[in-house]
Amino acid sequence: MASELKVNTLTGVSTAGSIAVTAEGNSTTTNLQQGLAKHWVWTASGASPADSFNTTSVTDNSTGNYTITIANDMASVNYSATVGKLTAGSGRDIGVEDDSNMLVGSYVIYSTASSGTEDKSCWGTVHGDLA
Q1: Percentage with pLDDT > 90 across the chain
Q2: Residue 49: helix, strand or coil by DSSP?
Q3: Residue span of the structural domain in which 71 resides
């Protein structure tokens, strides 16, 4: 028997912003709030976001180097930023520049190829605590 639940807000009983979800096998729980992506962006070969969530802007610093500005800051620089790009292969690399470029409100993506830096469609997703 199917059922449907329609709500605008979910609130935890013991902690308002924390809801436990029973995982597969019914033996462990996952904190729903901790598991949600807090930001994501997809750029289309440049500084123009093709689509995004919680993103203020993408700045094209130079070929293959973008600063992603997060609309609602993270609580600290201790968050996980995962990035990727559409063109992969031998001699190609993409990543988040060193931790000095990870700020509570932004991070920097670089994209390289064996011939140097390159502008390619890329994306980023952030998990962690919002401020």
Answers
A1: 36
A2: strand
A3: 37-127
